[in-house]
Amino acid sequence: MSYVSEAPVISVQGLIKTFGATRALDGLDLEVEPGEVHGFLGPNGAGKSTTMRVLLGLLRADGGTVRLLGGDPWEGAVRLHRRLAYVPGDVELWPNLTGGEAIDLLARLRGSLDHGRRDELCERFDLDPTKKARTYSKGNRQKVALISALTSDVDLLLLDEPTAGLDPLMEVVFQETIREAKEVGRTVLLSSHILAQVEVLADRISIIRKGQIVETGTLAGLRHMTRTTVVAQTDQAADGLARLDGVHDLSVEDGQVRFQVDGDRVSELVRAMAPLGVTSLVAHPPTLEQLLMRHYGDEAESAESEKAGVS
Amino acid sequence: MTAPTVSARPAVGDPGQARASQFAGTGTLVRFQLRRDRIRLPAWVGGLGLFVIYIGSALPQLAPTEEDLASVVPLFTQPVGRMFTGPAFGMDDPTYDRFFAAGYAPYLYLLAALMSILLVTRHTRLEEQTGRAELVRANVTGRYAGLAAALIVALITNALAVVVVTGLAIAVGFAAGGSLLVGLGTGLTGMAFAGITAVTVQLSEYSRAAAGMAGAVLGASFVVRALGDMAAVGGSTLSWVSPLGWPAQTAPYVYDRWAPLMLLVALTAVAVVLAYVLQGRRDLGASLMATRPGPAGANPSLGTPVGLAARLQRGGFLAWGTGIALLGIVDGAFTQALIDAGEDMPPALQEMFGTEGLLDGYVAFLGSFVSVVIAAYTVFAMQTFLAEEGRGRLDAVLATPVSRVASLASHTLVVAVGAVLIALVTGLLTGVAVAGVTGDWTLIGEVLGSHAGQLPAVLLVLAVCAALCGWAPRLVAPVGWALVGLVFVVQFFDDLLDLPGWLVALSPFGHLAEIPLEQFALMPFLVITALAVGIVGVGLAGIRAREINVAR
């Protein structure tokens, strides 16, 4: 599936959405490029689902501009929905319908049903489609919505915390199917607070907090904003490293030195360490947990100083 | 799902102690269940009590003299009357308390049974189905504690019902012995069905299916008793086959028999023992009946907004439709008995059916009464749409190329078609019943006309609900039910209550011709239909403009 233009699939600027006195989205900006898997990260209540529901035209934007697949999601909902599939965060199914019926129903409403693809996905996700939906666990309900979405031939997948109830095996299957979707050129907006999942799949991520995007970029691009944890054994005393710019929380114990270094100071550090006679070295790259910690963590001391350095 | 497994008893030295431990925590659970039902159970028992007070005070007003009383006797002694009420003991010498026992006490028994079915399912299978029982059983509670507690709560509630019904029946001036029989009949019927439900909850994994099975036993008991009592005054052998026949056979205020109550006690005991045996032989959450797998794929009809709406509305349509049609048939079959009783009916009842031409008045009444019930069905059915929105399922549908307008329009359309179908089928079947008992086959057309003539008013009620779905979803239930209540009062109690003119004018039913009392009038029929269509349009404009499920 190739796009005529490389215009963004999702383009949101200054989106505002209020519910009574609460401002759920407070000037949110979001760009999702064609063919990318975009991670949409944030804690519960940050506004991920509200954003998704605005993108689907279920809610109307109170301010800002929202373009989805080149159209206005509120006015053009029906036309745009032919080209997208959505998996809600909390999948509710019709208790009297079987899982198979729900899959077919949603796929048919979307426009087409590929039986072969449906059966293949049921097999891969290990779902029994003959059971009534009221007997399904949360994970199985999610599989139903996922299978139905992945069965459809669409340009855009909007997935709101799609794997919250899946076990690790099924999460691997999920990751495979998303990679396949990407290979055929589909765009994916994947919201989550499961960081490892986004880390594995996403080309770029946006971090939302209190209705605003606080960071956006590639994972590598975001890494320079956080710190690598280093644990090393050296022949000579390593205390002196503490004086380097960008090295934090250095401690020495039994000849083992442990500290954190800002992501963009690593090369200077390596030069400084070389003369010390490094006998072992373990470096942990920043995890998305740490990225989130910077924005939501209340570990003030490190966050404060870093904020000053970066922004 | 899971096959029933025979559980090994724990190897404990003292078998008595082991058995006692299977009931550990029962007392706590009884207090817990009573606490959860602190509103519901008093409401049920209070409702039974109000029913007794209402009948006790209404009877002397409806039939102030002995002649009046004697003139209503055929209502109960006719075979169709007996079908609905009971064996009609002592109607040769009618008194108010005999009327209470013959015509109204059977409904106390029915209500107590219903109350017990819901109570036991709620505290046993529903708890297991939702997984809450697992949370409880993980503590120091025995295998039988949940079931035992539910049955004890049922016993407490039904005992309370005995006291309330007996006390209030005596208080409104009925004889003490008979009143105690009616009270005990109520409570023991309740316990018998608590026992039956304790068995059915072992059979299915779902509380609704378990309650349904117990309800089916109750329905079958009603039908068997109805047929048995129809056969002869005082009932026949068939009446004794039904648990609902036993309390009726005590003949309160006439013969005051106590022995039939023992049958209820015995049934309760057998059912409870069976329930314990079954409970001991199965895993938590499992059932003795396997879950049937459903279709792996959807029927092609289930792939459009209308198809989905039809599927979601199907259950409600079938339940309401069957109930309304049965009501119509039975009311229709009652026609001849009414005509026979009519010549010297008390004025209060004459007023209700209209004075000039009892038959025409009754046929018109059949049509408008059923139409009000169908209007209630439309209020109920449109709430299915709101439930779809509230539960978040509408999100998934609207995320496909289905518009908000299409989703509301398809539900409205399906309910409208359903309401028309119910009206026409009920009109036809009622007409056949009326013609059958009177022998006048031209009446079929008149009865059908009396039903069809009121349809625009039914559609108008539906339209108001659809409009509210579009603009103010929270008002659908309060405004919808208030409208049905208003229409009911205006239609049937206007003459008695002398209501203000503007209020009467609000009811759409009053503007339509009452067939066959009046000639069919095309103008109001078309105007009200057009008004209904217009109001639906307003509702569709509303849903087009509003957001979905904003409360979330």
Q: Cα-atom Rg of chain B, whole angstroms? A: 26 Å
Q: Label the structural class of chain B.
A: mainly alpha
Unreliable stretches of chain B (pLDDT < 50, length at least 5) are: 1-13
Order of strands across the biggest sheet of chain A?
A: 5-6-7-3-8-9
Element pattern of chain B in H and E: HHHHHHHHHHHHHHHHHHHHHHHH
- What's the oligomerization state? heterodimer
Residue-averaged pLDDT of chain B: 88
* Percent of residues in β-strands of chain B: under 5%
- Can you summarize the main beta sheet of chain B? none
- Sheet/helix structural class of chain A: alpha/beta
Largest sheet of chain A: 6 strands, mixed
**C-alpha-based Rg of chain A, rounded:** 23 Å
Shape, per Cα inertia axes of chain A? elongated
Chains forming the largest contact:
A-B, 47 and 37 residues
Structure characteristics:
heterodimer; A: 311 residues; alpha/beta; 4-stranded antiparallel sheet; 11 helices; 13 strands; 29% strand; elongated; disordered C terminus; B: 552 residues; mainly alpha; 24 helices; disordered N terminus
Structure summary:
The complex is a heterodimer of chains A (311) and B (552). Chain A has 311 residues and is of the alpha/beta class. Chain A has helices at 48-55, 77-81, 99-110, 115-124, 138-151, 168-183, 195-201, 219-223, 266-273, 288-296, 300-310, and strands spanning 10-19, 22-32, 37-41, 63-68, 84-87, 156-160, 187-192, 204-209, 212-218, 227-234, 247-253, 256-262, 278-284.
Describe this structure in words.
The complex is a heterodimer of chains A (311) and B (552). Chain A has 311 residues and is an alpha/beta fold. In chain A, 34% of the residues lie in helices and 29% in strands. In chain A, the strands form three sheets. In chain A, strands 5-6-7-3-8-9 form a six-stranded mixed sheet, sandwiched between helices. Chain A has a four-stranded antiparallel sheet with strand order 11-12-10-13, covered by helices on one side. Chain A has a three-stranded antiparallel sheet with strand order 2-1-4, covered by helices on one side. In chain A, α3 (99-110) runs parallel beside α5 and α4 (115-124) packs antiparallel against α5 (138-151). Chain A is elongated. Mean pLDDT of chain A is 86; it is low at 298-311. Chain B is mostly helical and 552 residues long. Chain B folds into two domains: 23-290, no CATH class; 303-552, no CATH class. Chain B is built from 24 helices and no strands. Chain B has helices at residues 15-21, 26-36, 40-62, 66-77, 79-84, 96-123, 125-130, 132-137, 145-171, 176-203, 207-231, 245-249, 259-280, 305-333, 335-342, 347-353, 358-390, 393-398, 404-438, 443-452, 455-471, 476-497, 501-506, 522-545. In chain B, α14 (305-333) packs parallel to α19 and α17 runs antiparallel to α19. The longest helix of chain B has 35 residues, at 404-438. The A-B interface holds A 19, 53, 56-60, 77-79, 81-82, 84-86, 88, 90-94, 96-98, 100-106, 108-111, 113, 115, 118, 128-132, 134-135, 145, 158 and B 1, 205-206, 291, 293-300, 302-305, 308, 311-312, 315, 391-393, 395-404, 547-550.
